[in-house]
Amino acid sequence: MANPTTRETILAAIGRGKPDLLPLPETIGFPPNISVDNLVDSFMKMVQTNGGQAIRVPSLVEASAFLAEEYDLTLPILSRVPGLDISNFTPQEDLRLLDDLHLIVLQGIVGVAENAAIWLDETAIGIRAMPFITLNLSIVLSEKNLVGNMHEAYRLIDTSTGFGTFIAGPSKTADIEQSLVIGAHGSKTLTVFLLP
Amino acid sequence: MDTASPKHAKAAEAFLRDEENTDWHNETLWFVRSKRDRAAQSLPEWEQLREQASQIKAHTLSKLDDYLIQLEENARQNGIIVHWAANGDEHNQIVLDIMRKHKATKIVKSKSMLTEECHLNPFLIKEGIEVIDTDLGERIVQLRNEPPSHIVLPAIHLKKKHIGDLFHIHLGTEAGATDPQYLTEAARIHLRQKFLLADVAITGVNFAIAETGGFVVCTNEGNADLGAHLAKVHIACMGIEKVIPQAEHLGVFLRLLARSATGQAVTTYSSHFRKPAPGQEMHLVLVDNGRTRQLASPDFRNSLKCIRCGACMNTCPVYRRSGGHSYHTAVAGPIGSILAPNIDMKEYADLPFASTLCGSCTNVCPVKIDIHQQLYKWRQVLGEAGAVESTKKVGMTGMDVLFSHPWLYRFAGRAGRWFMQKFPSLANKPGLNPWAIHRDMPKPPEQSFRDWYAQQNQKTNG
């Protein structure tokens, strides 16, 4: 007989060693601690706690004006938000060229008020590396798509896409003497625009 | 079995010699522990959340084979290449074979305690491969040729002066510079080049989901994503205990993980990888390395619930004052001291004794592992296997005799009080009495509690 493969050996060892079946909890998750009226305030406060900035705007026109004020729009910029047309950068096949990206604007899908994490999937992101390689990141999100906690978020998002991520702020590190530094390897800033 | 040498105690002694640094280490970790407390208290359902997490993990362990098969099947359907490794050597060989297949010579790695456990870096470097750790703390310890001293804060044992000197030599930063902002920026520029040129990216796995055949990687720096999305090949390495049944369960674990680890509400990036991007290749390596043995042991299997948040280290009074390196294992601190003897009982026999058994680790564990009780059980297992150091064994035997003979116990108490009253300088001599190292012995009471109680009784009755 042939030697069993590693896979078979491991699975057999688990079969022998595992405990008797234990049930899953009947319900998973908890109702949110944030009332519907407070979703926006809580979310905006958490964006700030996470090191980003959150701005409430009535329409994309104001968001666009804010970005024009804040960033040099002659630098490589890409917007994937329909109606916010400030792009001057076309991603090439060679992913290394993305390193030039100064600002990218993406459409967030769901925002979580408890921790300010924003879900983006492949359709929102496009080339996966972009929200991580860009120097500055901006996300546009509708207030209608705010939920209280992660349990609610998982009920709404599609986890069957190729790639998706919760982003909660600019990248950060505290590896040098626990001093918080904003801007590790990912984006150095995060600006979130909340639309009605 | 040989008796273990007191490695932890010896290494801790060396760490403690720099008193200022020890105090700083202790206070810094306590600061993180306090942040964790505030984050936990912000959720009224925190305790029930821990209970749910613990139950989901317990259920998963009771069907671990089924969930791994489901994970494998779904991952394959998603286009991920799945590998199984019985131990660290097999794991390392799988990674090397993938490198060779692609004629790849450069790897960027994000933090993965599993690859530390398997000693992947030295293996690949010996094969002529450039291995760059990209988490800032990991890169720092890599440049120092050291292992990480903490699973979440790998360079927590170093001060910014050390890092400034290190970066001056390796990254050409200004001599004497210690500003964390400046040093982090230098590392960003240095590592950006490595990300852009790497052939292969290795990441760990925080959670793998049987239902979707995908996996989740959590970082604050964005290094895992940057590496994985830029390289042609992404290899994700996981211990088999990292699987959970469904995506919905992530809601429970992601609320617990960062709060327990650093006191953040969530990590900056919680990335869900499910299919390789067009033109890229994705591998998932499932590693046993002793986990099935741990699963088969009712006393210790709960340790497989661990989600590697590091909360038990931050709260441990021994870890905070002895430093992660004193544990001489990839995962230091209380949880590591349960995991390590399972991998090598002889090598790590000292670790279950590096604890006060105060239970603080158990109190903060987000998945409710009975950490201090398992440490206590390991001591018994090691005692029976003869792996307890001889001085400790003599002491234990002595106490056994003492406590089973009340008259002897009373006599010893009287003798002890008399001795400490007459010769306090001898009792406080560290060379004669190890309990007097770093502390003075208390003044002995005039009488024993037993005598005092008898006296009180006499007073009331008389």
Automatic annotation (TrEMBL), chain A:
Entry-linked SUPFAM superfamilies: NagB/RpiA/CoA transferase-like
Domain LUD intervals: 110-195
Gene3D superfamilies: NagB/RpiA/CoA transferase-like (3.40.50.10420)
Protein's name according to its UniProt entry: LUD domain-containing protein
Domain of life from the UniProt record: Bacteria
Name of a matching Pfam family: LUD_dom
Automatic annotation (TrEMBL), chain B:
The entry's keywords: 4Fe-4S, Electron transport, Iron, Iron-sulfur, Metal-binding, Repeat, Transport
Any GO molecular function: 4 iron, 4 sulfur cluster binding
The 4Fe-4S ferredoxin-type domain, residue ranges: 296-326
Pfam families (alphabetical): Fer4_8 (PF13183), LUD_dom (PF02589), LutB_C (PF11870)
Matches recorded under InterPro entries: 4Fe4S_Fe-S-bd, 4Fe4S_Fe_S_CS, FTHF_cligase-like_sf, Helical_ferredxn, LUD_dom, LutB/LldF, LutB_C, NagB/RpiA_transferase-like
BP term (GO), one: lactate metabolic process
Protein name: Lactate utilization protein
Organism this protein belongs to: Spirosoma aureum
